[in-house]
Amino acid sequence: MKPTILCYTKCGTCQKAEKWLKANKIVYTYRPIKEENPTKEELTVWIKKSGLLVSKFFNTSGLLYKEKNMKDKVKTLSENELINILASNGLMVKRPILWFGDKVLVGFKEEEWEDLFSK
Fold first, then answer.
1. Can you list the residues of the chain whose pLDDT is less than 50?
2. Could you tell me the domains of the chain?
């Protein structure tokens, strides 16, 4: 089984993550997050597997996040409502998302990725 990475081609962090995967000779599946945004079902599973709060799945530096004033909404809406918002537009989602077996990593922290693939 190979890992899958959800990325946005114009995202610098995604580009770094892909470069790291290639440098470490890790074969992966690429999924464009804008064209194939995560479904509610996928997000629900990933949030649980990641051990993170749903708020950590939001792209807080994105224009869409700011335009929709999500900073306040993330604090007051239910998890289900937040998942629906994430599933509505891939650019609302923090990236890259890497899932591999029962592990899900959000964002690119080289140490986390090294740890995942060294096992």
1. none
2. 4-117 (3.40.30.10)
